[in-house]
Amino acid sequence: MKELILVKYGEMALKGLNKKTFEDMLIKNIKRRLKPLGHFQLTSAQSTTYIRPLDEDTDLDEVADRVGKIFGIATYCRACVCEKDFDDICSKSYEYLDEVLSCAKTFKVNAKRSDKAFPMKSPEICMELGGKLLERFPHLTVDVKNPEVTITVEIRDENAFVHAENIKGAGGLPIGSSGKAMLLLSGGIDSPVAGYMMAKRGVHIAAIHYVSPPYTSDRAQLKVEQLCQKLTDYCGGIAFYCVPFTELQEAIKDHCPEEFFTIIMRRLMMEIAQRIAEKDNCLALITGESVGQVASQTMAAMVCTDAACRIPVFRPCVGMDKTEIIEIARKIDTFETSILPYEDCCTVFTPRHPKVRPQLADIEKAQNSFDFEPLIQKAVENTEMKTFNYSE
Ligand code: ATP
Ligand code: MG
């Protein structure tokens, strides 16, 4: 029996004239994502894309799993391909729906007919197929209002398709449809989640990470690279920038008041991030900050950090509780990696009593007492880039 995957768009179906651009982008993303799994034919009609495997031995479970992580897809389902012939539809349905209908008590049939030349109209298809399924599975009853299972028959140009429930897709907008932004990616729980959330809005992500050897270890960097690789499942290809940050941190420690260490460090991180963002055509920065989570994430601290930024800073976790962030981290499979206990550069030289309500003027004065510019330039020059792609 031949099977394919039907993909329905979400929000992007509403985008009017832009719809075609969004659709093309989504199809390109699907193709790229499925490439390692074999050959497929993709066709689109009525806000639906049909993914037909062309090889004999395609692993459709794996295809469905990957489709479920592609942004821009509202729902998807596996469907059985039938001849446009009522008898063929019935006989294939018996076999294809056997498992789901054997477990259900109530069902209904829903029909969509875009090929008006098909001899039966939609209500007739529902009635007739419903009757046949009742004969075949006598334990079932029809419930049109609140059925356990809805069976859908679609009569399209070339074939008819039969499927059961739609599965909820990743939602959002296709990656790339909203431009690119630079994610400040630490080894923690929050920033991978922040990257995922912006990618869901169609933002193509690049990532930047700061290391301070010998205070931070190679393993800490490897952990972040592992997070980057995991994010590609949802975010697609990621350019990963690794910034040598030791000299800047030592300069802060030697020249600034201890209570301002963290804020000044964050401002310097932002400065470097936006210079690299500019070179890589990123329009904004993204962090995993959440109001009040730690001393450097009070609103007053964010005012001081933002004052060092010339481009917008997106903080999609800003209003979330840790438990909510963890829930997403588990879903996108970054949690277990994030909790590996390696030092991040943020925990090097942490002040004993950080300023919870810093004043911008005080921070600027402290920062201006030393010329960080040469060290900033050096860090930018010595930044190394690696690319992470969809896992094969
Ligand atoms: P996370 O769980 O994302 O590490 P956090 O709650 O530990 O966040 P902080 O350590 O204060 O918070 O960092 C706040 C944000 O700053 C992070 O979410 C991340 O975006 C950025 N950041 C922190 N450390 C680094 C780093 N070493 N490299 C890149 N970005 C960093
Ligand atoms: Mg952290």
From TrEMBL:
The gene is thiI. Keywords: ATP-binding, Cytoplasm, Nucleotide-binding, RNA-binding, Thiamine biosynthesis, Transferase, tRNA-binding. One of its GO terms (molecular function) is CCA tRNA nucleotidyltransferase activity. InterPro entries: Rossmann-like_a/b/a_fold (IPR014729), ThiI_AANH (IPR020536), ThiI_fer (IPR054173), ThiI_N (IPR049961), THUMP_dom (IPR004114), THUMP_ThiI (IPR049962), tRNA_STrfase (IPR003720), tRNA_sulfurtransferase_ThiI (IPR050102). Its EC number is 2.8.1.4. Gene3D superfamilies: 3.30.2130.30, HUPs. It is found in: Cytoplasm. Belongs to the ThiI family. It is an enzyme of class 2 (transferase). Catalyzes the ATP-dependent transfer of a sulfur to tRNA to produce 4-thiouridine in position 8 of tRNAs, which functions as a near-UV photosensor. Also catalyzes the transfer of sulfur to the sulfur carrier protein ThiS, forming ThiS-thiocarboxylate. This is a step in the synthesis of thiazole, in the thiamine biosynthesis pathway. The sulfur is donated as persulfide by IscS. It comes from the Bacteria. CDD domains: PPase_ThiI (cd01712), THUMP_ThiI (cd11716). Residues 61-166 form the THUMP domain. GO terms for biological process: thiamine biosynthetic process; thiamine diphosphate biosynthetic process; thiazole biosynthetic process; tRNA 4-thiouridine biosynthesis. HAMAP family: ThiI. The keyword Cytoplasm applies. It holds the Pfam family THUMP. Signal peptide: none annotated. ATP binds at L184, L185, H209, Y210, R266, G288, Q297. This is Probable tRNA sulfurtransferase.
